[in-house]
Amino acid sequence: MQKESKANVSGAPVLSVKDVSYYYGDKQALDDVSFEVLPGRVTALLGPNGAGKTTLFSLITRLFDAPIGRIEICGLSPAEVGSRALAPLGVVFQQPTLDLDLTVKQNLRYFASLRGIPRKEADERMGRALDALDTRERIGERVRALNGGHRRRVEIARGILHSPDLLLLDEPTIGLDNPTRMAIVEHIHRLAEDDNIGVLWATHLFDEIEPDDDLIVLDKGRIVARGRAKDVVKETGAEDLGAAFKLLTSDPHEGVAA
Ligand SMILES: Nc1ncnc2c1ncn2[C@@H]1O[C@H](COP(=O)(O)OP(=O)(O)OP(=O)(O)O)[C@@H](O)[C@H]1O
Fold first, then answer.
1. In terms of pTM, does the model score above 0.80?
2. How confident is the model over 129-144, as a mean pLDDT?
3. With a 6 A CB cut-off, is 54 part of the ligand 1 pocket?
4. Atom 5 of ligand 1, nearest CA residue
5. Is the residue at 152 inside a domain?
6. Does residue 64 sit in helix, strand or coil?
7. Residue of the CA atom closest to atom 24 of ligand 1
8. Which of the chain's termini has less CB crowding within 10 Å, N or C?
9. Does the beta carbon of 51 sit less than 6 angstroms from any atom of ligand 1?
10. Which atom of ligand 1 is nearest to the CA of 30?
11. From which residue to which does the signal peptide run (predicted)?
12. Structurally, how many domains does the chain consist of?
């Protein structure tokens, strides 16, 4: 998809998380977490259940406020400037949020109107977004008639409709079969590169991470490893990412999980 505004051609981080900690009452969910997401790159946030991935996403999207530490999206802190800072953000949550009784086009038009995108421009953008995800032929169908993989693609198309600089994906392939998961992984990597989008992809599935991706391994609220995925594997001396993950975290499961 051709991006309208190349707002971030400087290579500056589209997301900066600095010294962020978070507590639910007495329970610490995040412990001094710092990292950056760069434009055009996929950053995988890998962690076992309970590592703190969803908490982190809730802080970035401002569902919760981060009382400790600082979060900036394209250089602006949502805590300081409010929802304006969220404008460059696209989000695909774990839970589906499309209206099942509306068609793909109606869902996307509705989202575009919430974003203040005029109808004609919205139609052009949705065509490009659906093309990028190989889903344009579904545009007239009710979401209820689509399978899980196509619904996810439409959710992602909606997430990129307003040409975000930063795309957050919270375990976007949950419940999908392997070929569909791999197709979505490929689409996202192409989108990041073609449109210079910085992607933060939360997952616990090793096979969704490519060797060149930036990787953050989160365990019990702490970053236990970071770097290019292939370098993280090399540093642990493990055979593959699954084995490296096992060495780095308290997660009991082994190998490639799907
Ligand atoms: N509302 C809450 N109240 C208390 N503790 C919570 C709450 N939500 C999450 N936690 C705890 O905070 C920690 C981080 O949870 P979080 O959901 O962010 O992890 P996660 O990596 O997203 O896990 P999952 O993959 O299972 O969604 C966990 O120990 C969890 O039990």
1. yes
2. 92
3. yes
4. 24
5. yes
6. coil
7. 49
8. C
9. yes
10. 14
11. none
12. 1
**105 within a domain of the structure (yes/no):** yes
> Is the distance from CB of 155 to CB of 96 less than 8 angstroms?
yes
Of 17, 24, 218, which is best to mutate to test ligand 1, by the most ligand atoms within 8 angstroms of its C-beta? 24
Q: What is the DSSP string of 87-119?
A: TTEEEE-SS--S-TTSBHHHHHHHHHHHTT--H
**Predicted ipTM > 0.85:** yes
- 198 in a structural domain: no
Taking Cα atoms as reference points, which of 149, 181, 186, 151 lies closest to residue 257? Answer: 181
Ligand 1 contact via 239 beta carbon (within 6 Å): no
CA distance 197 to 194: 8
Alpha-carbon distance of 98 to 121, in angstroms, equals 21
Beta strands in 76-231 (DSSP E): 89-92, 166-170, 198-203, 214-219, 222-228
Indicate the helix (H) or strand (E) that contains 66: none
pLDDT tens digits for range 157-183? 999 998 899 999 999 888 888 888 888
Please choose, from the candidates 42, 66, 41, 68, the residue with its C-alpha nearest in 3D space to the C-alpha of residue 56. Answer: 66
Taking the centre of ligand 1 as the mean of its atom positions, its distance from the CA of residue 52, in whole angstroms, is 6
55 ligand 1 Cβ < 6 A? yes
SS3 category, 71:
strand
- Return d(Cα 195, Cα 213) in angstroms, integer: 16
Q: How far is CA 19 from the centre of its chain?
A: 20
Q: Is 2 in the pocket of ligand 1 (CB under 6 A)?
A: no
Residue in the structure block whose two tokens are 């590592």: 51
Is 181 within the bounds of a domain? no
Average pLDDT, the chain: 90
Q: Which DSSP letter does residue 164 get?
A: -
Tell me the residue length of the chain: 258
